[in-house]
Amino acid sequence: MEWRKSSRSGSNGDCVELRQDLAAVRDSKRPGVSLPVTRDAVRELITRLTR
To answer: How far apart are CA 48 and CA 51, in angstroms?
Structure first.
């Protein structure tokens, strides 16, 4: 499964990555650990962050 990082992520490696199927997130500094999430939770997060 592929992971995507925000195009706004800096080059310092401090970013959160989102799995392509929107089913998990992870810290780019610890790629072996991921947090399963629902699509609705991802949508809500994105909505709140873009306000």
So the answer is: 6
pLDDT in tens, 6-45: 777 767 767 888 898 889 999 888 888 999 999 899 889 8
**Tokens 């929107």, residue?**
22
List, in sequence order, every beta strand (DSSP E) within the chain: 3-5, 16-19, 24-27, 34-36
Instruction: Output DSSP code: residue 29.
Output: T
Backbone angles phi, psi at 26, to 5 degrees: -155, 160
> Tokens standing for 10?
């800096």
**Residue 34 CB neighbour total at 10 angstroms:** 16
